[in-house]
Amino acid sequence: MKHIGIAACSAEGASLCYVTICVEGERFIGRKYAHPEVTMHTHPFDEYMRYIEAGEWGKVAELMLSSAEKLAKVGASFVICPDNTIHQAFDLFIDRSPIPWLHIAEEVAKEAERKGYKHLGVMGTRYLMESDVYPSKLEPRGIEWSVPDREDREEINRIIFDELIRGKFTQSSKKYLLGVIDKLGEMGCDAVILGCTELPLIISEESSPLPILDSTRILARAAIREALRD
Q1: HSE-up of 138 (CA within 13 Å, CB side)?
Q2: What confidence tens digit (pLDDT) does each residue in 18-70 have?
């Protein structure tokens, strides 16, 4: 099996991705307790946030590349990044990466196409929702997309950064987020992308008014499949 490298950013989402690989590995491999070798590296989260808030995506790219270089040195075969927002820097470094990467939005778009969805709502940080990360992967597949209105984008962003990345999950925030998903349904969306890797920790398939595309677990499962590929 190939060795999976995880270039982490925020802790809660990266933890969920790591746990998914380790727990679900046996289902793909067919042996109890089995999963691919995994190594994770992360720079301090405040370094990422300093550059994200300043719009310095070239510096975000250098942090991601640095993680890839460290992971390659310990034997990782490829890299995944369980953080949607910093994929805005993906194209700024990928040609210099010593090992391949799976792109989180590409894997989500593949899953959406496989399930036959035609119009997706995109939820995540404000930076993600106002970026081209998902449109650039959905539009070539003929999949429409919508994002919440500006007021909802700001509140979702606040919930993510003030609560979810700190492991705080409240019923009031869950109710708010589910209300946003309701609005996306009224806009014609037939499913919603949980495009922040912490969102699946507060929104489940059972609670959501629309089918969800859980970017964290979709990426983790794609990594397991890649690790098993000859």
Answers
A1: 23
A2: 999 999 999 999 999 999 999 999 999 999 999 999 999 999 999 999 999 99
Q: Which domains does the chain show, CATH number per domain?
A: 4-103+218-228 (3.40.50.1860), 104-214 (3.40.50.1860)
Q: pTM above 0.85?
A: yes
Pairing of strands 191-194, 4-8: unpaired
Question: Average pLDDT for residues 106-122, to the nearest whole number?
Answer: 98
Backbone angles phi, psi at 181, to 5 degrees: -65, -40
Decide if pLDDT at 230 tops 90. no
Judge contact between 195 and 84, C-beta under 8 A: yes
Q: What string of H, E and C letters represents the secondary structure of the chain?
A: CCCEEEEECCHHHHHHHHHHHHHHHHHHHCCCCCCCCEEEEECCHHHHHHHHHHCCHHHHHHHHHHHHHHHHHCCCCEEECCCCHHHHHHHHHHHHCCCCECCHHHHHHHHHHHHCCCEEEEECCHHHHCCCCCHHHHHHHCCEEECCCHHHHHHHHHHHHHCHHHCCCCHHHHHHHHHHHHHHHHCCCCEEEECCCCHHHCCCCCCCCCCEEEHHHHHHHHHHHHHHCC
| Residue with tokens 């040609």, as numbered in its chain | 95
